[in-house]
Amino acid sequence: MIKLRLKRFGKKREASYRIIAINDLARRDGRPLEELGFYNPRTDEVRLNVEGIVKRLQQGAQPTDTVRRILVKANVFEQVSAKPAS
After folding, report:
1. Residues spanned by the domain of 12
2. Beta partners for 34?
């Protein structure tokens, strides 16, 4: 199954995260299928590839709880239900 999850990068105590699509059996910092966004918890900066995220969600990808909260704040799920599945 494909998951949308966070991949950690940055220095110690100054972590930032990339939002990625990855196989759920792969390790946290393993090679992703696709990078879909960026999240910095220290500044609450979020950059999303909404088109790519919507495509992955329509294909059945499951977001982790943290990624789900980020996507809800950005109103991504409203776009998933509005766009027809191809």
Report:
1. 2-82
2. 21
Query: For the chain, how many structural domains are there in total?
Result: 1
CA distances from residue 76 to 28, 30, 56, 81 in whole angstroms, order as listed: 23, 25, 12, 9
Each residue's pLDDT tens digit, 64-74 = 999 999 999 99
Q: Look up the pTM and report it.
A: 0.85
The tally of CA atoms less than 13 A away on the side-chain side of residue 29 is 6
Task: List, for residues 27-48, the tens digit of each pLDDT value.
Answer: 878 889 999 999 999 999 999 9
For residue 17, what is the domain's CATH number? 3.30.1320.10
**Computed over its alpha carbons, how large is the radius of gyration of the chain?**
13
